[in-house]
């Protein structure tokens, strides 16, 4: 037994489920990223494997939330409120029994102490009825209705398929290094299978490469090689900074998050690359002299990385997207002030939301800037610019090779 509550012994494993419930509460009620909620939601768990299991339960629940809720709603006469503790407890019990291989008796016994009285009887009854009728979870999972109706219809089935499969891991290589064994989608790139322990791969200690989805490597690829000054705005943890430094630029890497900048510095140290690191707000800071290239990888809803972080599908609500879009427009206008005549400006977001991508680029109107259309021959096979020379990486891209994160990239040149 793992303790007592009100004189009743608690079953082993209860504390893990309580942490999973706290994680789901943090994401679904408070709108926090799952990763950010981990330290406080799992602080009562001493063992790393318990913390990892609580994380896995919460992540799988978020991946399958729409289908879990459909099972719960099918078994309740009156729908439970979205934020009812009984609904969250049921989600945790059902996801374990139907997706994570936990024996049903353990799945229910470990969540029942999360709820009292009537709700406890309800959780017990709904779980039992659902299991007795042999319910299963569909594969691939369904997207939340809000997302499925907001995204273009053609994205929905490819996105569901992406949600079903663990994503492969992409490595960006420093020029001239010997690549670890893997599949190559572009020059300077290797794809290794999902779940690979990357720190054990050859070249990790030597800093020959870093983890970066192929789509995330495109904004810096579209700046190319150069000898001048490049400013990487919103740079941490430094994937694009390392690309630019490896491509010959003198890089200024700026971010306002000190902890993420520490990770950027660690990444530079491991890869033996260099950049000037600045802790500042990209909406306020200005360089001493304008730069030859400015890359703005703006803060966004991150819906493009939903297959690694399914919480984004539930946190990207319309108001949050509108607020981010307003912030992105301000940051882009300020970034333009940092570009020297003749220099290049690249805007990128790992978002699948039109409002954060195409609409922000449409609204950019700094004088002296002309669009520099992205050409198909600048992109790895499988990526195609749109008719106006901007790049939308949508669900379904590279589907046969394991997919790619969602991204939007636009490019301008300062003519004067
Ligand atoms: C999409 S992530 C950047 C990923 C990074 N470019 C890379 O390739 O590794 C967005 C970053 O923006 C930073 N950020 C958010 N608002 C900012 C602001 N106003 N000024 C500077 N950095 C900001 C966040 O701390 C976060 O590190």
UniProtKB/TrEMBL annotation:
InterPro entries: MeTrfase_RsmB-F_NOP2_cat, MeTrfase_RsmB-F_NOP2_dom, NusB-like_sf, NusB_RsmB_TIM44, RCMT, SAM-dependent_MTases_sf. Signal peptide: none annotated. GO terms for molecular function: RNA binding; RNA methyltransferase activity. GO terms for biological process: regulation of DNA-templated transcription; RNA methylation. Residues 137-415 form the SAM-dependent MTase RsmB/NOP-type domain. This is 16S rRNA (Cytosine967-C5)-methyltransferase. S-adenosyl-L-methionine binds at residues 234-240, 255, 297. It holds the Pfam family Methyltr_RsmB-F. SUPFAM superfamilies: NusB-like, S-adenosyl-L-methionine-dependent methyltransferases. PANTHER family: NOL1_NOP2_SUN FAMILY PROTEIN _ ANTITERMINATION NUSB DOMAIN-CONTAINING PROTEIN, NOP2 YEAST -RELATED NOL1/NOP2/FMU SUN DOMAIN-CONTAINING. Belongs to the class I-like SAM-binding methyltransferase superfamily. RsmB/NOP family. The active site is at residue 350. PROSITE patterns: SAM_MT_RSMB_NOP.
